[in-house]
Structure formats: C-alpha cells, structure tokens
C-alpha cells in the first residue's frame, strides 16, 4: 500500500466497532481489508461446513464400534459409552453422583466467588471451612454413611480441577509470600526466597512430581506412606508458588517506591503498607499474567499421569485404548477433551478480561 | 497469613497421611487388618489391566490380583487397584504403597537380585515379535533388510532388535514413538515396514487394523518375557500366598475345575481336588489362610483358562491364542507343582 492509512480514533483495542459504518470501515474499508475479510470468511465457512458434516451429517449416532469403523464422521456412541469413565475415571460407578455433585458445587461456588461484591474475609472462610471440607467429604467419603473411596480411585475432571485450582489457591498466598521475601531488605529471608524460587524454577514440573512420587517414599520410615495424591498436590503447590512469586515480583517492582515510603511516613507497619497499599496495586497489574499461568496449570495437571494418577486428559486417553474402540475414536476423544479444556480456559480468560475492566487497569 | 497456611497444610497432611502398619507386621497381617488387598497394575493395557465403561478394572493382571484377594478374603472384589507406570512400579512395591505388583513385568535376574523384590511364578509367557504387512512378502524376520521398525521407547525393545539383527547379520532403522496411538498410526500409514513389541501387544495392534488379515505376525520370538507378579523381598509367607494363588489357577485348569462346576467338584473323590478345594487336610492354615482358599479363588475368578479366555483369548478383540501359555500336558509351559 502506497499511502499511509490514518486509523480512526479507535483507542481501546478491546472495544468492538459499534456502529454499522465503523463496522464496514473495519472489515471492508480498503481493497486489502475486503480481500482479507472475504478470504477469512471463506475459510471459516469451509471449516464450519467440514466440522458440521463431521459432527452431525456423517456422524454415527447408533450402533457400536463397527458402525463407527465404516463411517468417516464423528462416533457419538463412543462418547456415550465412555463419558462417565472419561469424566470420573476409576471412581466407583454407583458412587459417581458424588464427584458429579462435588464438581457442580465447586463450579457453582467458583461462579459465586467470581462476583466482586461477595469478596471478603467471609468468602475466604466459607471456602476454607465449608466448601473445601464438603468437597473433600463428598469425594473421600468414610463418614455420614458415604462409602470410603481411596484417593487412588479419584480421577478425571474432578481430579484436574482439584489439582489445579486447589493447587493454585494454596500457591497464591505462598507465592505472594515468596515475592515479598525476595523483595525483602533482610538478607536471610531474601536468600531463602531467591533460593527456593530459583531452585524450583530450575527444574521441570515433571521432575518435581517424580521426586514426590519416587524419591520421597524411599526416605519415609517403613510402613509409612503419604497419600500419592497429596504428594502430587504439594508438588504442584510448590511449583506454582515459585512462578506466581516471580509474576508478583514483577508487579511489586512496578509500584513506585514512593508508595511504600509514603505508607511508612504515615506510620503504617510493613505488613499494613504491603497489604493495604502496595500489594493491591501490584496484583492488579499482574492479573493477565496470573490468569495465563492459571490456564497453563489447569492443563499441566495432565503430567500427573507419570505418577499413576489419571486426570481428565489421561482418562480420555486410556478410554481410547479400550480394545473395543482402539484406533476408531481417537479424533473423537481428543476433540472432546479439547472442547472441555477450551470451555474452561476460555471462561478463565473471559473472567480475566472482566477483572481488568473491573479494576480498570488495562491499557493504562 | 503464612502461619495459617502452614497450619492448614499440616492439618491436611495429618488428615491424609496413612500410617499403614508398624514395621514388624507381615504383609498378610497388614492386608488382613486393612481389609483390602492393594494391587499395582498398569495404567491402561487392554487385556491386562484397563478400565471398562464403568471404570472397573478388567484384565488378566487385574484377575491375578482378584485371585489373591479371593485367597485371602474369600472375596475377589476386596482389592484396590493402584495405577503404576514403568518408572514407579518397583518403588511403589518397595515403599509399601502396594502389596503386590501385577503389571506385565518381566522377571529378570537383575530385578530379582538387586531391587529388593521377589517374583512369583510366571503367569504369562511373552516375547518380543514383529508384525509386518502381508504385502511386504516376508515370511521371516531374517528376510527383513534395511527395514524401518516402529517401536515405543524402552531400552530392552531396541536392545533385543539390535541383538537379533546382529546375530542374523541384518540392518534396521529404529523409529521411536512416544505414544502407542502414534506408533500404531505410523505403522498403518506405512512409515515403517514393521512394528515390534511384545507379541501380546502386537496381537492387539493387529486386532484394530481395518483389515487384520492384511498383517502377519512373524514367527520369530526375539526375546523371552516371562511376565510375573512381584512382592517385597523377605516375606516368604506372602510370596507363598501369591505364588500358590497363581498355581491354583493353573492346577484348577489341569483338574478341569471351572467357576461353574466348583461346587460339584468340591464333592469329588479325587484326593488332590479335595486338598485344593479345602475338603481334606488343612493346607490353607499352613499359609495363614482360610482352608477354602482354593475354592474361593476358582469360585471368584475361575481357572487359568477362564481368566485367559475372558481377557485375552480368541473371543476377545485381542484374539490371542494360548501359545506357550498352555498346560504342560498339552505341550505348553504351565506347570503347577502338586497341591499336597
């Protein structure tokens, strides 16, 4: 293009063009734009047509593996047969209402907790004293007439959520603590913070899980075993904390020193300055980075397969290996897993954008 | 804040730490006190250990676990399965996380000698083989020249191939895939001329081909893979229980005792059958088990042939033949010592 285009005054890239004329200018303003729009539209239509054909027109809705083998479309009977296994893994079949209730309760509680108006000490206490214990009792059983289900049988989507969300819930305060330690003026604390963060960030998650699964039990006295799930959970917490600490440190460095000094000049204690002045500003700035990390961790929990726990992606994978379906429904399984991960990751992303708008921190 | 967090951590840990048993307790005492057998199986190997649609563990290895549970408790379902993978299986046994490892594990000298474990009797005689498309026109592995061979990662698999082709003076190119799905897809798409794995595994790979008849399993078995359950070293009572639970499956087949006729057979006049099913002598007591332990095994899971046919046999998708896993008097390798 020869002449320089002057963009219309669209300052906020998040906002969509509102009026029809703006819309037309954005998509068909120049021949180049029009061409791009047409090509993209054609590609999207083509993909949509293929996907629709695969999902519905050519798909198999009845019958078994043999019907699917003959067809080129999606194999819905596979999903129908394997859905409960993929969602809940080895959890006893008759008791699977429990992880289902736990999952719904968890997601419901998350939805409520997302509303800024309910934030506060009460919400934190509700999670710590009511929601998490109830979830634990539902999953583990053993009291109130619920059959005990050992953690070795937990699996699927509840396990994915538990490892990632509980992990991050505990890792966040720990990570903030580590970030403060790293920024501390006391050398001993700073060295501890730096040492922990660099040590953990210097090794891959998979090797930390391996340490927790393979090495730790060998150091324990004979006959004493720590629950495998707990070991994995602690490993994930420690790992996530180191990364959160570095993100939070970035936020802390972005807060002008004057804020801290002003707080101290007012006679506030270190913790008061941190919790009332510095951290609120720092955390606001790092919301996008934190959410990216959360999404990454939600997907990274899949690594626990190496220590013999099956999270959602792993239950899908193992379902694919069923001899009745092996080699027939591979695409279906992975598309289903991708769809589930996509929905939750997209929701987290959307919530992150909402938070940014709520705090009005974006693009400032 | 931090203290609260630590306290919470400690509380959770206290909640979930299970001190299984004191050092002095034998495995049998531990298992009985717990009320369940904990058995390590593989994550997902159809036919050996894999979840069915209801998330129930099924397979040959799983049924070995069930037979031990039946021997100890009289109930084949008193068993919890713990998923172990290749890297964590022995450690899980050493640390006491599982009572017995029944996971397609090859019994070898160095494992028995150096890992602090003891192997029970071989439950499945396997060996590495090669699967090729019929169109290749090869009848023996010796005719494979400069072939690309698809495998999964694993030192023994490639080592066996190297050894084999060195002895026959051939060359090959190894193509390694991380996941079984990719490995299989690569073979079917023609990336490799042959695919190599344990013969039991190759049978299941062949079973899912669009047309299984287009592929042939070459006759050579290039390694010995006797798959056996394993227990912690120095607990001979527990090892006896595991060994004889397996032998009981084999002996029951030899004597023609099946799940359906075990009640009739219990009235048999044959003294050995009487001893096996608890009608005569008190053999169970010698192991610290109920005298009906043998009866409970057969009643709970059937005999060896039933376990094999149910999980691996020709009526399943895997469609394996018994091969060397036949009774000694039919030319196979299964040979249970006498129950007396």
UniProtKB/TrEMBL annotation, chain A:
This is Amino acid ABC transporter permease. NCBIfam families: HEQRo_perm_3TM. Signal peptide: none annotated. Residues 157-353 form the ABC transmembrane type-1 domain. GO terms for molecular function: transmembrane transporter activity. One of its GO terms (biological process) is amino acid transport. The keyword Manganese does not apply. Belongs to the binding-protein-dependent transport system permease family. HisMQ subfamily. Pfam families: BPD_transp_1. It is found in: Cell inner membrane; Cell membrane. InterPro entries: AA_ABC_transptr_permease_3TM, ArtM/GltK/GlnP/TcyL/YhdX-like, MetI-like, MetI-like_sf. It comes from the Bacteria. Its main location: membrane. Gene3D superfamilies: MetI-like. It is a multi-pass membrane protein. Keywords: Cell membrane, Membrane, Transmembrane, Transmembrane helix, Transport. The chain crosses the membrane at residues 34-57, 97-116, 123-149, 161-181, 202-220, 232-252, 286-313, 333-354. It comes from Aminobacter anthyllidis. GO terms for cellular component: ATP-binding cassette (ABC) transporter complex.
TrEMBL record, chain B:
Residues 36-265 form the Solute-binding protein family 3/N-terminal domain. InterPro entries: Bact_solute-bind_prot3, Solute-binding_3/MltF_N. CDD domains: PBP2_BztA (cd13692). Keywords: Signal, Transport. GO terms for biological process: amino acid transport. Residues 1-21 form the signal peptide. It holds the Pfam family SBP_bac_3. Belongs to the bacterial solute-binding protein 3 family. This is Amino acid ABC transporter substrate-binding protein. It comes from Aminobacter anthyllidis.
